[in-house]
Amino acid sequence: MADLIDGKARAQTLRDTIKVETSELVAKGTTPGLAVVIVGSDPASQVYVRSKGKMAKEVGFNSFTHELPESISQKDLLELVDTLNNDAAVHGILVQLPLPNHIDEQLVINTISPDKDVDGFHINNVGKLVIGGEGFVPCTPLGCWLMIKDQCADMSGMNAVVVGRSNIVGKPMASLLLGESCTVTIAHSRTRDLPALCRTADILVAAVGRPEMIKADWIKPGAIVIDVGINRIDAEDGGRGRLVGDVDFAGAEPVAGAITPVPGGVGPMTIACLLRNTLQAARRLG
Ligand code: NDP
Fold first, then answer.
1. For 86-108, what is each residue's pLDDT tens digit?
2. How far is the CA of 97 from the centre of ligand 1 (A)?
3. Which residues have a catalytic role annotated?
4. Is 264 left (phi over 0), alpha (psi -120 to 50) or beta?
5. Distance between CA atoms of 92 and 119, rounded to whole angstroms?
6. Considering the entire predicted model, what is its pTM?
7. How far apart, in whole angstroms, are the C-alpha atoms of residue 225 and residue 161?
8. In this predicted model, what pLDDT tens digit does every residue of 20-71 receive, in sequence order?
9. For the structural domain made of 139-267, what CATH number should be given?
10. Given ligand 1 and candidates 49, 205, 230, which is best to mutate, with the most ligand atoms within 8 Å of its CB?
11. What is the assigned CATH class of domain 30-113?
12. CA of 120 to the centre of ligand 1 (A)
């Protein structure tokens, strides 16, 4: 049976450390400040934003939430970002994605000061990650990386397969694993014989968005399996339904060496890593 990688507990430990380090920074005169900007009223985004604000306060940060109407112009949004860039009380800026269609998402992201880009999506931070520089790393792959490190401090020479090539998960995850000297393959919807490729993986990261797509017989015995997927399965009786990952957890657990559950794996680590990045920003900016 695989070791269960308890992301919830790991995230709590990380937040406890952040809380202690925050109080030390506050004593020196700097209270980390996280500004979260949300445009429109998407219920899922609102849940994420609320939980980010709550966790930020719990570790001792100042939390500033800017809720803007769906109809806000790109110009007004860029002006707000600029104001936050120049606000000394704000060390981290996060613009919740997706943005409405009339707003150029990439332009907004690249208007955030790279020094306050705690999501790690600014092109400067993307570039730093690729060349191995000191920038901000996107929170979800950072959380995955921390959990893999706990399982295996030296990944050098291991085969890693990342399924999914998005800018927010798949590509930065691959860069982190390459930085650990893994032999990395990025798979996507055009990959041929995905099951055979996955079977080569000592480390398998699934970031696809397809419920339980990765089956038990795709997994190399003993592999570390990180399931990023969050998929809601509707209940047959019209109830709340349930969340599942991209990996068939029940089938994979007896085969893998270690595996993250959904929920309670990558999700909690993502928010904890946002706090980690914000503390780092506050330390750098003072
Ligand atoms: P995207 O939709 O941006 O990317 C999905 C990737 O999966 C694409 O590269 C796509 O390939 C690939 N893909 C789709 N179908 C297949 C297939 N049949 N075989 C192989 N590859 C396939 O998703 P994200 O990266 O944003 O998110 C992935 C999942 O992770 C989602 O479930 C999301 O909800 C979850 N997530 C969880 C987070 C957390 O905190 N736990 C944070 C962020 C995301 P192609 O490029 O060819 O289309």
1. 999 999 999 999 999 999 999 99
2. 15
3. 52, 96, 119
4. left
5. 9
6. 0.97
7. 10
8. 999 999 999 999 999 999 999 888 888 889 999 999 999 999 999 999 999 9
9. 3.40.50.720
10. 230
11. alpha beta
12. 18
Helix (H) or strand (E) holding 233: strand 231-233
Tell me the C-alpha distance between 202 and 82, whole Å.
44
CA nearest neighbour of 199 among 215, 183, 175, 176: 215
Domains 30-113 and 139-267 share a fold: yes
Contact of 170 with 178, CB cutoff 8 Å: no
Among protein residues, the one whose CA lies closest to atom 34 of ligand 1: 230
Q: Both tokens of residue 83? A: 């104001």
Tokens linked to 268: 């909690």
Residue type, 150: D
CB atoms within 10 A of CB 283: 14
Please identify which residue in the block is written with the tokens 């706090």. 275
Give nearest CA residue, ligand 1 atom 35.
Answer: 229
Nearest-CA residue for atom 15 of ligand 1:
189
ω into 211 cis (within 30 of 0)? no
Report helix angle 7-27 to 139-151, nearest 10: 110
Domain locations in the chain?
30-113, 139-267
Ligand 1 site-directed mutation target among 49, 121, 166, most atoms within 8 Å of CB: 166
